[in-house]
């Protein structure tokens, strides 16, 4: 279909949540210009968003506390789902067409030509663009994205569920995929009852791994076990987590850990409870924490510490397709876009349980 013939009316202005400069409060405004179809460059598309997830990364971006600077003013957000309503003139071989439902993930654009891209490590592309960080993201009703990098969303999954998969789901899915574990192997998930953790349990079980879920409190215990965790450890009452993991795994330790925490202790502890040739998958992006691992035992036990950063297009497609097959239940809370400032506030105070999804329509 030619982009000349699209029937959809694109408004001139829209509602968007804007951070004027690093550290400023986020403001929802209703008169923000919408990029018009005629102004799209080849390879770009305009997506009318239905909803977007809110991630801790968005809070880091708004506060400007990461070592890499973001653009300003900034429209954050990188877990958007919506429909393609325009494609730039002279776009060739677009893998998506008008009307397709697509997802906008953290990696908004990768060149597909550089060394990292040629090795399918698009998330490390030297020309990469990041949604809601180096380019405006999904806290708006109409977002400009790139036909080659949006994620097709299959039928069989509602948009609000798909939203959280585009960052949280993708991140844990790739970490598990690259954990070099086999079916039946033990995977430890600290923070298993949280936004990333509850998805990690389900992907791990889908892959046939055995899961040791660590978190605190009765509510989290119930959630983790209902999602299929094989063993539960409550860190608020367990006196020796390493000993407990060793006991459960027949004295040998776990094969892998997917560590999403910002605290150094989560990492040093993993070196103790992993078995020989175990893999520590580091996926959190705290602004300052350092990784404190015992070098002797990292070497002596041949432990691999693997930084796993979101995922490429293929990882995203696999992650979403597995969920659309019915295997993954996303626990989220819907909020209106106007709540974003309050959501950031609650997030900063650690009050958010699970994922937040903003409705944008
Ligand atoms: Zn994120
Ligand atoms: Zn590249």
Automatic annotation (TrEMBL):
SMART domains, A to Z: PKS_ER
EC number: 1.1.1.1
One function term, GO molecular function aspect: alcohol dehydrogenase (NAD+) activity
Domain spans labelled Enoyl reductase (ER): 23-358
Listed cofactors: Zn(2+)
InterPro entries linked to this entry: ADH-like_C, ADH-like_N, ER, GroES-like_sf, NAD(P)-bd_dom_sf
Keyword set, alphabetical order: Metal-binding, NAD, Oxidoreductase, Zinc
One cellular component (GO) term of this entry: cytoplasm
Domain of life of the organism encoding this protein: Eukaryota
Protein name: alcohol dehydrogenase
Organism from which the protein derives: Macrolepiota fuliginosa MF-IS2
Lineage, broadest ranks: Eukaryota, Fungi, Dikarya, Basidiomycota, Agaricomycotina
């Amino acid at each position: 279909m030619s982009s000349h013939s699209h029937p959809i009316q694109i408004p001139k202005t829209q509602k968007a949540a804007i951070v004027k400069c690093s550290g400023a409060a986020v403001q929802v405004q209703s008169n923000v210009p919408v990029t018009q179809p005629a102004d799209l460059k080849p390879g770009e598309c305009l997506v009318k968003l239905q909803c977007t997830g809110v991630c801790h990364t968005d809070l880091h971006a708004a506060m400007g506390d990461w070592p890499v600077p973001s653009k300003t003013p900034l429209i954050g957000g990188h877990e958007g789902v919506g429909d393609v309503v325009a494609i730039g003139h002279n776009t060739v071989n677009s893998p998506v067409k008008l009307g397709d439902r697509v997802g906008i993930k953290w990696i908004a654009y990768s060149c597909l030509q550089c060394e990292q891209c040629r090795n399918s490590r698009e998330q490390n592309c030297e020309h990469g663009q990041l949604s809601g960080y180096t380019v405006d993201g999904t806290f708006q009703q109409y977002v400009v994205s790139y036909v080659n990098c949006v994620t097709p969303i299959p039928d069989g999954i509602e948009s609000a569920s798909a939203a959280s998969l585009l960052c949280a789901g993708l991140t844990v899915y790739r970490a598990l995929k690259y954990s070099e574990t086999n079916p039946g192997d033990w995977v430890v998930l600290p923070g298993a009852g949280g936004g990333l953790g509850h998805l990690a349990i389900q992907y791990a079980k889908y892959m046939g791994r055995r899961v040791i879920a660590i978190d605190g409190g009765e509510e989290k215990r119930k959630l983790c076990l209902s999602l299929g965790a094989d063993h539960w450890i409550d860190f608020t009452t367990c006196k020796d987590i390493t000993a407990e993991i060793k006991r459960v795994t027949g004295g040998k330790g776990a094969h892998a850990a997917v560590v999403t925490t910002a605290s150094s202790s989560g990492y040093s502890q993993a070196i103790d409870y992993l078995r020989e040739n175990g893999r520590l998958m580091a996926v959190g992006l705290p602004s300052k924490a350092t990784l404190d691992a015992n070098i002797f035992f990292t070497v002596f036990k041949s432990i691999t510490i693997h930084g796993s950063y979101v995922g490429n297009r293929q990882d995203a497609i696999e992650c979403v397709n597995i969920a659309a097959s019915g295997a993954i239940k996303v626990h989220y809370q819907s909020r209106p876009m106007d709540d974003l400032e309050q959501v950031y506030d609650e997030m900063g105070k650690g009050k958010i349980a699970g994922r937040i999804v903003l409705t944008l329509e």
